[in-house]
Specification:
The complex is a heterodimer of chains A (about 90) and B (about 575).
Chain A lengths: L5 H32 L1 H4 L3 E2 L2 E2 H31 L6
Antiparallel strand pairs in A: 1-2
Helix pairs in contact in A: 1-3
Chain B lengths: L2 H26 L1 H5 L7 H12 L2 H14 L4 H25 L4 H8 L3 H33 L4 H18 L1 H4 L1 H27 L4 H4 L11 H11 L13 H17 L1 H4 L8 H37 L7 E2 L5 H9 L2 E2 L8 E2 L12 E2 L4 H8 L4 H39 L5 H23 L6 H25 L5 H23 L27 H18 L5 H10 L12
Helix pairs in contact in B: 1-10, 1-18, 3-10, 3-15, 4-7, 4-15, 4-18, 4-20, 5-13, 5-15, 5-20, 6-7, 7-8, 7-18, 7-19, 7-20, 7-21, 8-18, 8-19, 10-15, 10-18, 12-15, 13-20, 13-22, 15-17, 17-18, 18-19, 20-21, 20-22, 21-22
The chains are: A mainly alpha (about 90), B mainly alpha (about 575).
Chain lengths: ~90, ~575
């Protein structure tokens, strides 16, 4: 099974890349952003006994990574079906 | 029953369990054994991948490093988990579609060049051997403590056991054994953490306990920790930056892309049945890794607090050396914990001031193993931690040694130099390669270039600077050609190795570092462990430059790139 047309192949790849770019923006914001670059600012906000920046660096970023991979898996599954390139 | 006997029993029992499962799985269904995980659910594959991936660095070393670095240790937490996002979205599905079984094989085919394949093999061997040194450090620490011998003797015993474990081989390939290893490892990590968290805060979930108040008070645990460490002159736990913000940024990036470039992790995704399983397997692996990685900061913070409060129960009230607890005496025997009574008062004064500090040596790698003893937990938990640490170190070391030996025998000998080699000779070559790799890594392990996690971080930097960019460009660019890829890999790993060697010694041998290990000599204040990200940037830049100056890849290679971008039709992957 392959793409019906050359246009389909291009459109599929474009949608794939745009999804990945969006998810990587979130990836960057929670780790490099909240966990490193903005850590001092966020540390002024408490989250229970945690400072928020510290929490992102040692807890929050990791939880977000897990969610990102599952969002990717689900969305790519939908994309594969839309273009008829899923392996079912 | 004394701790030593109990440790032998628990460690022995887990080994019997692994071997038993290996035999049962083999006898139960030969078919399943041959399809190599083909019938295994992504959740099971994810669990096995997690066992494969979490090594002595994650289990024994990481929380100890965080305990002494505080916030700065976050680079390991974010770096080693964030890489799975890259792996799941940018590499695993495409490499699975391609359908070959080693990383150098992909690089050799995509860049239509044997030379590229050889360069990839060399890079792979350099990263993997460095990685094994880190495991050896962890194994040495664990054995020295539980057999009550010096670190050096512990390391030697560890080398012998790793050798037999890796040569037994079959155990590594069976997913169910790895699932058992994961269970032992995660129980051994979380049970003491739950006990300690409950004792300190009344909250049994370590992830929440770290953010809670100490039992019977309204003081937050982290605030108390900040106060205790700053009173002794150490940097504040929750805000202590490692080096500089730039250094932390680069370090984290280096660990992330290194994770995605490590051959023994990538290989796991080649064996799932479909492209979509490669995507979700990475997700499940990260779920199981997250259980340990979000517990680690709690273990770190609580261990540091318990340690400080054991040595100095109240400000100005010091522990007498003669009344030191048993764990203190035991770790002194290994040479990894050292006390020197500088002012001769018989009391232990621990401070950040090097002149008056009497805790002259606390090897960070002992913290996780010592933690349950410091917290006065029952002996069976301490024995369980030993078993977990060994499971983590041995499974990863064995996996890496198999990756090294298959790179030498399959990619180098059979693939390039001696295509007609017999199967038996190939197998022997791989065993000899494995023995040399263990001996070499063990020898270098006597003078490890850092704590186990730091050494492993170096390995990630090397993978980040060499293999990761080649794989990325192989998938996402049709224009990068063989000249570009080879020049890029060589430039990336050379720059990184030179930077590491000039600060940490040639092959990490003390005395050969020509620029010294001091931070003032670091480029932009970036430490050697973190330099892989810079190496990767150089790799990308050189590869693009050279590729654009030379001829575009042939049409069939461009078709191959098109082909791996389509998820369907995995079975046809061998057409090319």
């Amino acid at each position: 099974m392959a793409f019906k047309s050359e246009e389909d192949a291009k459109a599929y790849w474009k949608e794939n890349l745009s999804l990945v770019v969006k998810l990587f923006i979130v990836w960057f914001v929670v780790s490099f952003g909240c966990g490193i670059l903005l850590v001092d600012l966020l540390n002024t906000i408490p989250l229970g006994g945690y400072k928020l920046g510290f929490w992102f660096a040692q807890q929050g970023a990791i939880y977000t990574f897990v969610v990102l991979i599952f969002v990717y898996t689900i969305k790519m599954g939908q994309l594969d079906r839309k273009y008829g390139v899923d392996d079912e | 029953m004394d701790l030593r006997t109990l440790t032998y029993i628990v460690v022995g029992a887990t080994f019997v369990l692994y071997i038993g499962i290996a035999i049962w799985a083999r006898a139960g269904s030969t078919k399943e054994f041959y399809v190599a995980g083909g019938g295994v659910h992504p959740v099971a594959n994810g669990m096995a991948t997690a066992a494969d991936w979490m090594s002595a660095a994650s289990f024994i070393s990481m929380a100890g490093l965080i305990a002494f670095m505080g916030y700065g240790g976050s680079v390991f937490l974010m770096g080693w988990t964030g890489g799975f996002v890259i792996l799941a979205m940018l590499l695993a599905p495409y490499l699975r579609k391609y359908g070959k079984f080693t990383v150098p094989e992909f690089i050799g085919d995509r860049f239509y060049s044997r030379k590229a394949r050889v360069v990839a093999v060399i890079c792979l061997i350099i990263c993997s051997v460095t990685y094994v040194i880190g495991q050896m450090k962890g194994v040495g620490v664990a054995f020295s403590r539980f057999l009550e011998v010096s670190y050096e003797v512990g390391l030697l015993i560890g080398m012998v056991i790793v050798f037999f474990y890796a040569v037994l081989g079959g155990m590594k390939g069976i997913t169910y054994t790895q699932i058992a290893q994961y269970c032992v490892l995660i129980l051994a990590y979380t049970i003491p953490a739950i006990f300690i968290s409950f004792n300190l805060t009344g909250n049994p979930l370590p992830q929440l306990g770290l953010g809670s108040t100490l039992s019977g008070t309204d003081v937050f645990l982290l605030d108390k920790l900040d106060q205790v460490v700053t009173e002794l002159g150490f940097a504040e736990y929750t805000t202590n930056v490692r080096g500089s913000t730039l250094n932390m940024f680069v370090y984290t990036l280096s660990l992330m892309i290194g994770t995605a470039g490590l051959p023994h992790v990538i290989i796991r995704f080649f064996t799932v049945p479909k492209v979509k399983d490669a995507r979700s397997s990475a997700g499940w692996a990260l779920v199981f890794i997250t259980i340990l990685y979000t517990t680690a900061p709690a273990v770190a913070g609580m261990a540091r607090l318990n340690l400080m409060q054991t040595i100095e129960p109240e400000p100005g009230q010091y522990l007498a050396y003669d009344e030191r607890p048993q764990w203190f005496k035991n770790w002194e025997k290994t040479g990894l914990l050292g006390f020197e009574d500088k002012n001769g008062d018989g009391l232990i004064q621990y401070s950040a001031n090097a002149e008056t500090n009497e805790m002259v040596k606390i090897d960070n790698d002992i913290m996780v193993l010592a933690n349950p003893e410091i917290a006065k937990l029952p002996n069976w938990i301490i024995a369980l931690v030993a078993a977990g640490g060994l499971a983590a170190a041995l499974s990863t070391a064995a996996g890496l040694l198999l990756a090294i030996s298959s790179a030498i025998s399959h990619d180098l000998l059979k693939g390039v130099f001696m295509p007609n080699i017999s199967e038996k000779a190939e197998l022997n070559a791989s065993r000899i390669a494995m023995a040399f790799a263990i001996a070499g890594a063990g020898y270098l392990g006597f003078n490890p270039p850092g704590f186990a996690a730091g050494t492993v971080a170096l390995a990630f930097g090397l993978a980040a600077s060499s293999i990761f960019p080649a794989l990325m460009m192989g998938i996402f660019s049709k224009r990068v050609n063989k000249e570009g890829a080879i020049a890029g890999m060589v430039a990336g790993i050379t720059v990184t190795l030179l930077y590491v060697f000039q600060h940490k010694g040639i092959m990490f041998i003390p005395g050969t570092e020509f620029l010294g290990g001091m931070s003032p000599n670091w480029f932009l204040g970036i430490e050697p462990n973190a330099f892989g990200a810079i190496g990767a940037v150089i790799n990308f830049a050189v590869a693009y430059g050279v590729s654009n100056a030379t001829e575009a890849p042939p049409q069939e290679v461009q078709d191959l790139v098109e082909h791996i971008r389509v998820p369907s039709g995995v079975a046809e992957a061998h057409d090319h």
